[in-house]
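Title: Prediction job returns without error message
Component: structure pipeline
Severity: low
Priority: P3
Assignee: unassigned

Description:
Job completed but the reporter wants confirmation the result is attached to the right record. Sequence as submitted:
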Amino acid sequence: PYVALAECILLVYYSVFSFSFVYIAASNIMRLTPDERRLAAKMSNDGLSNAKIAATLKKTPSTISSFLNRYKRTGNIENAWGKGRSRTFTKRCDRKLKRLYESNPHASLRQLMNLYNEENEDSISLATVKRRLKEFGAEKRPLTKKVVIGEQNVVHRRKWVKSRINWTVERDWGKYIFSDKCGIYIEKAPKSSEKRKKGTEGKKEIPYLFLASRRKQIGCVFWGCITYNGTAALTPVSRNMKGEKYVELLKTHLEPVLDVQFPDNDATIVDGNHPCQSDWGAEGLGAENQRLRRIEWPPQSPDLNIMENTWTIVKSELRSSSVKIENRRQLIEEVTRIWESISQSRIRGLYDSIPERLREVRRMKGRMTKY
């Protein structure tokens, strides 16, 4: 019995080996290399028959015939792409995933994958979700960090909004001056002598401006203020500005605004809760001639400060600018130009949104709003 078993094993081994050899040999006969395809096309154009071409290249006639038929039909000697396997993710699955995406537009890829896998038996991968969202026309965007407001500040925001919920723009908010600091950083513009990547000649250049939250090659911190009549003062300042410097800044750049737009000394400034701005009234404009009052602004409330939206406008315009910026001076000039070009109607639109912002905070019970 052992001899018979050994003979069976040897028979199976030689059968598998022979089949593999025949398969490899057949695949070599049926497959055409790029040089063989070019030669077969040339011989066919010269009038040789398929049988002579097959004998010359030592290939099967069916291989040559199949290639030449495709060559005459397409005019291309490259191999045709295969159809691949059929899709396991059906159109019905596409509709389910699309409904999940539309109902959760701010969810990440992993969150959408988990939601889909929880509701369906067939699980999908992150790569599948990414491909399908791309087919749906969804745009790729960085995941925004969720702002969490402390409970104590939530209570403060609710009380602050409640006391001002009936304020109007004409009677109240129109007399407020919004001011804030903002750092703008960009990548340095490429030099004109720098070589472009091969194959990109004549193509549209990618904008080189890159706004970032941390310091890059070129950057500057700006202080600016707006009124109901439009943009007002703008000046570059130090990143670590102290209280004395801030008082001097107000005297230099804010007094002209008060002289022109608030001759009755009824202006109130919104300057956020920056440390350098906390004691300005003790020795600044507020104590000397009572020309300017300061409002107590609730902490963790960037959604109420329209100055944040103004800086967003400046950064957006700077990102789309075609001016090449190579140093800090050019950056200051371009930001100043953009600042002065912001229309009055755009600023008034931000002022007109303040009552709606307050109502939204009340509706959210003090939590962060969409603004």
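Comment from assignee: result matches the submitted record. The longest helix spans residues 2-30.
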